[in-house]
Amino acid sequence: MPHGPSLGTPLVPPLVTDADIRAARDLLAGVVRPTPLEYSRALSERVGQEVWLKCENLQRAGSFKIRGAYTRMARLSEEEKARGVVAASAGNHAQGVALAAQLLGIAAKVYMPLGAPLPKLQATRAYGATVEQTGLTVDDCLVAARAWADETGAVLIHPFDHPDIVAGQGTCGLEILEQCPDVRTVVVSAGGGGLLAGIAAAVKAERPDVKVVGVQAEMAAAYPASLAGGRPIPLEKMATMADGIAVGRPGDVPFALVRDLVDGIEVVSEAALSRALLFLLERAKLVVEPAGAAAVARLLEPGGQAVEGPVVAVLSGGNIDPLLLLRIIRYGMVAAGRYLSFAVQVPDRPGTLARLLADLAETDANVVEVRHGRSEAELFLDEVEIAVELETKGPQHRELVLRTLAERGYRPHVR
């Protein structure tokens, strides 16, 4: 869903300038590491353009968030630092705030959703922050964090809606320009918009000809409607595996920059996110969380608008629960036509299972698991259900397996 703002001078003075971003980079020297820019031959071949991966998943604390969190917190007064800080996050901002607080000697409390991934919870606590879980979304946690700030005087470190946060995230954009001087398109995931706004501000200040494209999860995409309406508009509901960009309302500060500087906002499906994560694991040997894979998901989508290369896709984070990773790998393989799970009801007679497996062997599919059940309510007394999980070689092979089963008299129920 593209959105095309003007590329000229914004109607109002920018909230974050190139000078702000360069000052943030000076502040972050020795704190963050310039992350690698890796060429992806596999992705370049798929896209038809030269594609580079900006590996913020390899940043300290596993995402770009330390850039903005440290910039914001280092600029607090001594009196503010003494009062401590409070934050709300699904995980990456939590770790960025906790690490920055540890480095700066500031007490930190972080509110995280009830469903936050366990590794993100553990890492946040390991950096020394106090963690409290509440609500189901980052927006719920922000309500609790603001209440705590009002009650105690702690300084709220917003995950995206502050000029210092955006300036810190923008230092990633400066690195992109230096590492890939001939870049023509930058693709960035977006939730509240801090990273997208910061990169756009940094890139457009020096290279207004470079296109900057934001990517949101289809089931948590607040920007398209907000841009169409001319103001941040909250979503009524969200449902996405990409918890790092599951934000119901764009921030005021990033919204203004995105509106004036970003060349398009597009959305990707859950299946596309899974395929992208699997692609990065297999072809780039990089562990990336669903939110961090959104830019690559956009590039892999066949129906997306053409992009001009060289392209830089930002991998915004790599903090993923291993259990979620297992589920996503399977989901991604199903979406790519490389995994098939089905059940058939057959007569409960000796040799039936062996016959089914022999029929599957003829299709050259790899059987991963077989389950044999007699207790399902819909079965007749002389029937048995056989559930099978297979590895297939792609969509065409998957269809061949199903067609062969039908030709042999089975009625597979795909799961």
From TrEMBL:
Listed EC numbers: 4.3.1.19
Catalytic activity: L-threonine = 2-oxobutanoate + NH4(+)
Cofactor: pyridoxal 5'-phosphate
UniProt source species: Lapillicoccus jejuensis
Keywords: Lyase, Pyridoxal phosphate
Family (UniProt): Belongs to the serine/threonine dehydratase family.
Function: Catalyzes the anaerobic formation of alpha-ketobutyrate and ammonia from threonine in a two-step reaction. The first step involved a dehydration of threonine and a production of enamine intermediates (aminocrotonate), which tautomerizes to its imine form (iminobutyrate). Both intermediates are unstable and short-lived. The second step is the nonenzymatic hydrolysis of the enamine/imine intermediates to form 2-ketobutyrate and free ammonia. In the low water environment of the cell, the second step is accelerated by RidA.
Protein name (database record): threonine ammonia-lyase
Span of domain ACT: 341-415
GO terms for biological process, alphabetical: isoleucine biosynthetic process; L-serine catabolic process; L-threonine catabolic process
Taxon lineage: Bacteria, Bacillati, Actinomycetota, Actinomycetes, Micrococcales
Residues in coiled coil: none
Gene Ontology MF terms in the entry: L-serine ammonia-lyase activity; threonine deaminase activity
InterPro entries for this protein: ACT-like_dom_sf, ACT_dom, ACT_ThrD-II-like, Ser/Thr_Dehydratase, Thr_deHydtase_catblc, TrpB-like_PALP, TrpB-like_PALP_sf
